[in-house]
Amino acid sequence: MDNILSWIIWIPIIGMVAIGFVPRGQQDLIKKIAAVTTGIQLLVAVMIWITFNPTDGSFQFMERAEWIPSLGIAYILGIDGLSLPMVALNALIAFLGVFVSWNIDRAVKGYFALFLLLDTGIMGVFLSLDFFLFYVFWEVMLLPMYFLIGMWGGPQREYAAIKFFLYTLFGSVLMLIALLALYFACGKTFDMLLMMERAPFALDGVVWWGMSAIKVIWVLLFIGFAIKVPVFPFHTWLPLAHVEAPTAISVVLAGILLKLGVYGMLRINYTMLPDAVWWFAGAFAVLGMINVLWGAMCALAQKDLKKMVAYSSISHMGFLLLGMAAVIAGGAANGSNLMAAQAGINGAVFQMFNHGTISAMLFILVGVIYDQAHHRDIEGFGGLAAQMPVYSGIVALAFFAGLGLPGLSGFVSEAMCFIGAFPVFRTIVIISTIGILLNAAYFLWAFQRMFFGKLNEKYTGLVDINRRELFTVVPLLAITIFLGIYPRPFLDMIKETMNVLIDQVVIVGGIAGIF
Amino acid sequence: MSNLQSLSLYWPELILSGTILLAIIIDIFSESQQSKKVSNWVTLGLLLTLIAVAITKHSPTTLFMDTLAFDPFASFIKSIVIVATILVIVISRNSNEFKGYHTGEYYALLAVMVFGMFLMASAIDLIMVYLSIEVVSLMSFILAGYLKNNPRSNEASLKYVIYGAFSSGIMLYGLSIIFGLTGTTNYFEIRDAVKALDGSADLALTIASVFVLAGFGYKISAVPFHFWTPDVYEGSPTPITAYLSVAPKAAGFALMIRFFNQVFVDGASLSGMGWSSTVSFSWPQLLGIISVITMSMGNLVAIQQSSVKRMLAYSSIAHAGYMLMALPTTSSEGVFGIMIYLVMYLFMNLGAFFVLIYVIEKEGGETFEHFNGLGWRMPIVGLVMTIFMFSLTGLPPTVGFIGKFYLFAAVINAGPAFYWLAFFGALNTVVSLYYYMRVVKAMYLTGEPSDVIAVPSFSMTMIFLLLAIPSVFFGIYWVPVLGWVKESLLLFVQAL
């Protein structure tokens, strides 16, 4: 059990090296290696989940090794209630992603090698507790993503890939500047635990060109992370990248990559710059509202099913931002409403996880129909319910999860976000609820157009969802239903860490408070 | 030190001179046209020189009546120059651009150029500065025009001569103003005299510095003294292009570091902290602005190129801009960052050019189209080129990122007054991604998986790996480089 976090990060690299030695012709062997590798990773993740101590809100399974001592860079890993669900989600999505990619037949070796590299990059971001290491993993993730979209994507793949790359790199370099500023402010260390302790006080009262240093760093970091989320107006790369990427990569993009932005904000912005949370919470709420409404309205207008799902992601991330803004309800100025703060933050993290499973499911389902029909035009279908009954049933459930039907997990987390944000941002929450209505509208409308009515003559040859595809969807569906009915096990795992986070914002941010 | 004493610390240069003379003699008696013998001899001589550089140790001092400095910093730059030269000699032997030319004197000229750069690395006297720049320039003119049957190579040489003559003339004028103001050519005496002027001659000093900067800027191709770069880089034999983009640039930066950080800065020792400028005119701001203009211009124009060779020419302008970013910080961190970057830049830029040489040979051209589908047809070449492109962009885990990281760290550490530099540097990184990725895109995103796979010859593969492996390894664990640079960050300084 020693170094279990290192294992979960580096296992995919072992698989990648193994794939490197397989002759190019043996495609099946390559796929099997990828499946076994991610399978082992999933088992390790389950082990961590079981042995994780939910009553402890601090970091567990810590690892520490010297790397570049003269620069204060170390190899530090640790896991808490914030990263645990993300690690589990990533392991699950990566494992399912291999099976979603089973039909890839072009340059298979390269595809799975890059896929595993991507897996390592994402795991690394969630587990590093050294800011430099965090940044390296953050960037390493971009390289395979560029190739995976650019080489195996749809007709506009080259444009989508470079746009994705440019957008995220823009965010990253701003983050690099913020990182260096924090590094020097905190006494030349990249150890995130030390930075969390020192940064709120070290930067207190520092002014750069008439602006508070805390605000400047916050904004730089925020832009870096907001591009990943994506927060309006940094979202324009997303629909394109999602639509052009091959199915499995869309699944990873929606399921995990978007969460990295939120994870970064909660891990870094909230803990290192707690004062600025107070300053920015209002903007968070407003941006969340815009995301909810803008994403939903764009989704309503889409003719391409995959694009519709992509925009629905933007909308769902908006709920999450509202939940994150709710943390300030815990402050004295807002009546020390700790319940609301807890509901909001726990809801946001829960929403991260739920959106990960639901959107992954939606993208897989889009891929299923696309593989057979070779198009995704919502209007082009019709009456599929009779032709593909099992598929229709699963899509119905997935759509219901997406629109937040009670009894499915999405409802619980969205409701928590709203409940948390309501006491502080009443008007904004009320307006945002229109988004729920819009969500229901486009999902149901799309469902109606695709599955009801007269069957299109062209599609009498379509066969129902096959066993491999079922295997990729059912686990996600099961999680969605289970957590929809009984969210307690999940919330218990993250609760203590969220309390620590709220304390950091409310107490530390309150003491040092300059706003 | 007196002249005679100096000789005992001058072993590397003496070996180098012997190498040059013998190379010429061997060339006369050598019969083969390709002159393998000469290149073997020059390589051997350079290796001996490198060993001599490494083992000649002495506390920082001056040689030949205070005209040259002898310090670890000079040895550092000399080592970079020698390594670059040896690599370029190896690639020149493997390149077929020189087919039909007698190449004996080519290698001898390269060795002379190395000598000039040795002088540049240690010059602390205005006369020596001028002479060393001229030695390097004259050799570059000839080498750029080495393909005498190729009109573009001739054009390159001619343009280079005109620009070179022009900018060294301006520099000489600037040097003479400084001499007129201070009555001496020695850096440290100038520093003391300038300080004694106490701001009374700021205008004259500003003008003189700008003029001197024309000469330095020309050597490192900083905007607006860069106009020769694209055409010369494009027309020269590609190995020479690779060479010009690395070695003289390193030597040029050495000159600039010495000039600005020794003449205008009052620091007891360069390893110390908290220097201050001894003059009141704002040369750091001037350098900062030149840095931003240089990187932005280089990057923006590189985007529009259709030839990879020209693109790399503009990209090397941009990299000069990044390095210039750290110079105005007047801190040992800044010099440290530049030194790290020079090491990292050596690997990635030479690597990119060497792949280009190979592609020109195999595909018959240097445009982006010639790279189409290369990753499928030649997996090894595609992979190493991808590493070099990522590295030039500055993405981890490659050396390019580590180099940029130290530059940015130096700038951020210098305080809020310099943050705008870091900001522009960061934006430029994003811009540069676009055109470096064009190469990667051509190699992988166009074209189809192919069953016919070409593998470069053993020696080419070795050269590629020799540059690509450090490009990644030092990106993950760069402590060895760090240690070397730290030891070398010691410049000779005379107390004020």
From TrEMBL, chain A:
Pfam families to which the protein is assigned, alphabetical: Proton_antipo_M (PF00361)
Keyword Glycoprotein on entry: no
NADH:quinone oxidoreductase/Mrp antiporter transmembrane domain mapped to chain residues: 128-431
Transmembrane segments: 6-22, 34-52, 72-99, 111-129, 135-152, 164-185, 205-227, 278-301, 308-332, 352-370, 390-412, 424-447, 468-486
EC annotation from Swiss-Prot or TrEMBL: 1.6.5.3
Cellular localization per UniProt: Membrane
Assigned GO CC terms: membrane
Bilayer topology: Multi-pass membrane protein
MF GO annotations: NADH dehydrogenase (ubiquinone) activity; NADH dehydrogenase activity; ubiquinone binding
Enzyme class of the recorded protein, top EC level: oxidoreductase
Gene Ontology annotations of biological process type: ATP synthesis coupled electron transport; electron transport coupled proton transport
Presence of keyword Transmembrane helix: yes
Coiled-coil spans in chain: none
Predominant subcellular localization, coarse grouping: membrane
This protein's UniProt keywords: Membrane, Oxidoreductase, Transmembrane, Transmembrane helix, Ubiquinone
Family note: Belongs to the complex I subunit 4 family.
Protein name, entry field: NADH-ubiquinone oxidoreductase chain M
UniProtKB/TrEMBL annotation, chain B:
Alphabetized Pfam families for the sequence: Proton_antipo_M (PF00361)
Keywords: Membrane, Oxidoreductase, Transmembrane, Transmembrane helix, Ubiquinone
Enzyme Commission number, as recorded: 1.6.5.3
Alphabetized GO MF terms: NADH dehydrogenase (ubiquinone) activity; oxidoreductase activity
Transmembrane stretches, start-end: 6-26, 38-56, 76-94, 106-124, 130-148, 160-183, 203-228, 240-261, 281-302, 311-329, 335-360, 380-406, 418-437, 458-479
Membrane topology: Multi-pass membrane protein
GO terms under cellular component: membrane
Ranges where the NADH:quinone oxidoreductase/Mrp antiporter transmembrane domain occurs: 123-425
Compartments reported by the entry: Membrane
GO biological process: ATP synthesis coupled electron transport
InterPro entries per record: NADH-Q_OxRdtase_suN/2, ND/Mrp_TM
NCBIfam families per record: NDH_I_N (TIGR01770)
HAMAP family named in the record: NDH1_NuoN_1
Designated name of the protein: NADH-ubiquinone oxidoreductase chain N
